[in-house]
Amino acid sequence: MNRKLLVLLLALLVVACAGSYQKWQTSQVIDAFKNAGLEAEAPRPMSDEDYGVAPVVAEEATRFFIPSCGDDCGGRIFSFSDSDSLFKVKFYYTKMSEGSTLFFCWVFEKDNILLQLDGDLPEEKANLYGEVLKSIR
Question: How far apart are CA 47 and CA 32, in angstroms?
Answer without folding.
Answer: 23
